[in-house]
Design goal:
75 residues, four-stranded antiparallel β-sheet
Length: 75
């Protein structure tokens, strides 16, 4: 079973050890039916990642919204 969430980049900070911390929280816009459905399943949450990959940081811009897919690892 795959689980899908919709998160928005809400904070980007430089860490003292040289990485960039990206903080995402669930996206919610009451005008969007899709967001209403997501809010019922995951009304709150937090994802923080410390990233060193410049290409990934180019994509993870403040305010940008992403689908997060959780797929079990077999084995």
């Amino acid at each position: 079973m795959k689980i899908r969430a919709k998160f928005q980049v809400q904070e980007i900070t430089q860490t003292t050890w040289g990485t960039v911390r990206v903080t995402l929280r669930p996206q919610y816009d009451p005008e969007m039916p899709e967001d209403e459905r997501f809010a019922k399943a995951t009304p709150d949450g937090l994802l923080e990642m410390d990233i060193e990959n410049p290409k990934a940081l180019e994509e993870l811009k403040l305010g940008r919204v992403f689908y997060l897919d959780f797929v079990p690892v077999e084995g």
